[in-house]
Specification:
- This protein has a domain of 151 residues.
- Strand 7 and strand 8 form a beta hairpin.
- Helix 1 packs antiparallel against helix 2.
- The N terminus is likely disordered.
- The protein is of the alpha+beta class.
- Helix content is 27%, strand content 29%.
- The strands form two sheets. Strands 5-6-7-8-9-10 form a six-stranded antiparallel sheet, with helices on one face. A five-stranded antiparallel sheet has the order 4-3-2-1-11.
- This is VCBS repeat protein.
Length: 225
């Protein structure tokens, strides 16, 4: 339950209890002032937290591609391409969504931790096919797809067993994958990222940046993936 709503209900119930005791003469349960104070402080802290991660994410968005990897030197001097991916998703379920930012060359994932911005992953096609042609998010997984003449390359990102997890798979090597930095097989990779079940409804589209309109101001509600 939203803490603001919980606090409101708690105060209403407390006041109602006092009114009933006056009418019946019974001993009413008085609200614990320290408990009310703690709820107020926690509610304020949550609001501050939301402001803080939004501010931190806006700063990195406005910096464009300055922090995005460019493994094959394909990105222009302007950094982030004019068409780019941008979304937020709470992979680890801590109430603070991670930021997903990138373009057709690479994707970076950031989190807000300990009052600061932290990059948790750089994602790109590692086999030299260069470009990200499709981007999906489903089953709490972010999946990059790069199409080539020999099939597709896949890069996956998720949160599992208390930590962020990445993996790669390439159709040209159907019996091999890398999962969490360790060599693995297709079944293990697919059991985590379910690339055989990708749905078009979960495919993400580029955002078109218009530089003439000035600074980009994100609408966080629309960007939830």
């Amino acid at each position: 339950m939203n803490k603001n709503l919980f606090l409101f209900c708690f105060l209403i119930l407390s006041l109602t209890g006092c009114a009933d005791s006056n009418m019946t003469g019974g001993a009413a349960l008085q609200p614990d002032e320290s408990q009310v104070s703690n709820l107020i402080q926690e509610s304020a802290a949550l609001t501050d937290q939301e402001i803080n991660w939004q501010t931190a994410y806006m700063e990195i968005i406005h910096q464009g591609g300055g922090h995005l990897p460019d493994p094959y030197q394909l990105r222009g001097e302007d950094g982030l391409n004019s068409s780019f991916y941008l979304g937020i998703h709470d992979f680890n379920g801590d109430g603070i969504p991670e930021l997903i930012l990138g373009d057709g060359i690479s994707i970076s994932v950031y989190t807000y931790l300990n009052h600061g911005l932290e990059k948790v992953a750089d994602l790109y096609e590692p086999e030299g096919w260069y470009l990200i042609h499709e981007l999906y998010i489903q089953n709490n997984c972010l999946i990059l797809v790069s199409n080539g003449s020999d099939g597709c390359g896949y890069v996956g990102f998720t949160y599992r067993d208390g930590s962020y997890l990445t993996g790669t798979y390439n159709d040209s090597s159907p019996d091999q994958s890398v999962l969490g930095g360790e060599e693995s097989g297709f079944k293990e990779f697919n059991d985590v990222f379910h690339i055989t079940e990708l749905k078009q409804d979960n495919r993400k589209s580029f955002i078109k940046r218009n530089k003439e309109r000035g600074e980009f101001i994100p609408d966080w509600a629309v960007l939830v993936w």
